[in-house]
């Protein structure tokens, strides 16, 4: 039998207590209210001395004492607890939630379990008048509770994946004399299928911007794996590094139809020479000091397609006053005109690289952009 200590530890490990509202869970409580035609619904988690509601309708707030809670009784048994008329029930008739606010008469709750099976909360529907509940509606409440349970576990998985991804995102931008560097990414959801990476080399800077086909946790996991794999290839030439990662992806993902586009480059800071390999990305550019635009495109295929891609390195020079711009295709969604070159060039004429990056990411948030947006700007100062 699971002890209260084990149950509390399981609840704490879920890291849900005192988190903001979640629309996925709120949607279930709204549906439950409509299906059962009740004034009160709650997704309740039983903390040490309180009931904390991840979502609620009609109960007036996120917390209540745990003492005498109907939900506390629910988690101590298996299956659905139904009290059709609490005022006539020998156990609950004198309960403070019955004789006082909110004057409960009807209660039906089904336990919510942590991933290890510990009962940590309930989905419950409540009313101030007596009601009955047949077997079909009991089964419906159970199904909704299982749905809540899945969403809570999914959120925990997303939170953990997001934490891993944040840990892998560069915390600082390398400070290189004579260069201004600005970077940023804005996921469309909780997890980004884009990533960028920058780190110093003996001669300057190596950097990558990549985009995994798709969005969400799966794409984010693959993106983190690709970033880590490229980091382990840091001592290899650009072509060799991408080829090795392509081999790894092709071995594991070919049958899943998932591929990764990437711009992988190395900058010699003293000379300004830029060597790069474009793996099907085609969103790298140089804006020359005179305003001319140079596209850094390539005919190489994305990684992971299983077609033995033949990567080829190209080179150019970043002269004083020139700026390199590389972004993911999600940036195209946030530009008013859809013309990346014109609009970014206009922004760069008015704002610093860091301000341009912030403007792009702010637009992505404001517009609820449908795709992840990631951008790198490197300017060789005149």
Automatic annotation (TrEMBL):
It comes from Nesterenkonia rhizosphaerae. It comes from the Bacteria. Pfam families: GAF, SpoIIE. The keyword Hydrolase applies. This is PPM-type phosphatase domain-containing protein. Keywords: Hydrolase. Residues 179-380 form the PPM-type phosphatase domain.
